[in-house]
Amino acid sequence: MLVALNDHWKVPVGYFLIDSLNGNERASLLEKCFELIYETGIILHSVTFDGVIVNLSMCTALGANFVVGENFKPYIINNMTKENIFCFFDPCHMLKLVRNTLGDKLELRHKGKSIYWQNIVLKKFQETEALQFCSQYVPERFKYPEETALFCSMFNDAFDILNVRSKFCKKKKCNMPLTNENYNKLKTYAGNIIEYIKQFKYYNHLITPDPLLFFTQHTKSQNIKQLQYSTNESILQSNRKTGFLGFIICLTNMFDLFHTLKEKGLKYLLTYKINQDHLETVFSALRSRAGFNDNPNAKQFESSYKRLLVRHEI
User: I want to staple 261 with a disulfide (CB 3.0 to 4.6 A). Which of 120, 209, 266, 299 is the partner?
Assistant: First the structure.
């Protein structure tokens, strides 16, 4: 789907009725899409996708390098125009992956301090007994609540930066369009978040049993085993890196994209334009016209799409 950065239109450009494609096959289709878009006179500046690993392989096949370091190259080259096409991960999906990582691993480390999933989950328990139980039986598991609060605040700010919908929105801490006036301010915020993410480490745990499960079952046993750590590695080197890496790539590319757009006369950038909500909205509309069928066949898709076009024209 194409979404205009300097206007208010969006239009689907292709729908592939297949089960799956590998990275090279997707790269070939994307290159063909670039060619067709170029023939219409539209200038393409970015491509957005979710965090499925095959999408990373697709961009790598086209020349991108998502390894954070000296050779970091979060963009691909348009063979027709020789300009950069910046890669963006969908912020909503990245936020979900970050949440799932903390929920599955239960603990992340930042500068030697722990970020605990339980510190977030416990907010659901309003009874004083829950807090008394956890502090009595497993006090080491509920240290550093301020570090967990900082974790939530950082990713909240990152999502705000990447989800600006209007140039007239209330200019809060990070929820503002990217312009010349606030460029340095947002650049500083984004830089702090990127450095914060780079310092994450995570542990693989063997936890027996879970203290919250103990509480819900009203168990009073004091024989709670300590955590056993099996690994201690950078989150960007782990197999759960996608959500964290996605935020780094988005917060890096948005400023480079703004520089490119500014040269073409655009005065501000609304980051909501480069997320995947537009595509999800179209998918939802197509499903609703086919009995909320998640997997329409070619005939059903054609019929639903025609109905959408007619409704739009009317």
Answer: 266
Find the helix packing angle between 145-161 and 91-105, rounded to 10°: 160
Q: Which of 52, 53, 27, 43 is nearest to 85 (CA)?
A: 43
Q: Which residues pair with 279 in a beta bridge?
A: none
pLDDT at residue 249 tops 70:
yes
Rg, Å, the chain Cα set: 23
Structure tokens at 65: 């390098």
Indicate the residue type of 105.
K
What are the CA-CA distances from residue 227 to residues 22, 141, 293 (Å)? Answer: 39, 9, 45
| Residue listed under structure tokens 């009073």 | 220
pLDDT band at 128 (very low <50, low <70, confident <90, very high): very low
Higher pLDDT, 20 or 231: 20
The answer, yes or no, to whether the previous bond of 209 is cis (omega within 30 of 0) is yes
Alpha-carbon distances of 239 from 197, 202, 243, 244, rounded to whole Å: 15, 11, 10, 11
Q: Does 245 score more than 90 pLDDT?
A: yes
- The whole-angstrom separation of Cα 86 and Cα 75 is 4
Beta bridge partners of 115: 108
Instruction: Reply yes or no on whether the pLDDT at 14 is more than 70.
Output: yes
